[in-house]
Amino acid sequence: MIFPEISIFTVSHDNSIIKGADLSSPLGKRFKLMSALLFFTFLGLCRAQTDQGTFMLGSDLGSGIINSSSNGLFGLNFGLNDGAGMDLGLSPKMGWFVRDNFLIGAIANIGYSKSPESNSQSSESFVYGLQALTRYYISPDDVDVDELPRRLRFFAEINGGLSGVNVKDGPTTNGFAYGTGPGLAYFITDNVALETTFKYNGLLGAGNTAYQHALSLNLGIQIFLDRNRAENIIDDERRAIN
Question: pTM value?
Answer without folding.
Answer: 0.69
